[in-house]
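dumping this here so i dont lose it
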């Protein structure tokens, strides 16, 4: 194969790779989506005995979607390929208080007094976006 043909094939390959990368980037859809989860929290006394157990359905945000990942030939990589993996993850977490309204004593009897509700702090995604997989340094 002549050097000119090799250069043309190389340039064609690069153009094709760029087209695929741009198409993948356009398909990224990492979103912050509301969902509902069931939460159960138990409270224990100083001796380690169960005092009460509270639960409830809580609306929270979650991260969901696709991010483009790619494998491409590389001269400098030991395996011969360069891998870029991206995951849909939280960009920022917010803390908030949720109220659990179904509380029971250790015998399973529903509580009706001031112990009938429990406030719990939880952290949920406030914003989601694509991050390089394994990058926890943020």
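and the seq i came up w/
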């Amino acid at each position: 194969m002549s050097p000119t043909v090799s250069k043309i094939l190389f340039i064609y390959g690069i153009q094709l790779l760029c087209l695929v990368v741009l198409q993948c980037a356009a398909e990224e859809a990492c979103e912050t989506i509301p969902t509902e989860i069931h939460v159960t929290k138990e409270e224990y006394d100083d001796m380690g005995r169960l005092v009460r157990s509270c639960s409830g359905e809580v609306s929270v945000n979650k991260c969901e979607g696709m991010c483009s990942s790619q494998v491409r030939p590389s001269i400098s990589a030991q395996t011969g390929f360069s891998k870029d993996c991206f995951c849909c993850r939280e960009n920022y977490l917010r803390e908030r208080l949720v109220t659990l309204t179904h509380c029971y004593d250790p015998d399973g009897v529903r509580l009706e007094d001031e112990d009938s509700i429990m406030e719990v702090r939880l952290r949920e995604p406030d914003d989601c976006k694509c991050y390089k997989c394994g990058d926890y340094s943020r």
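The helical segments are 3-26.
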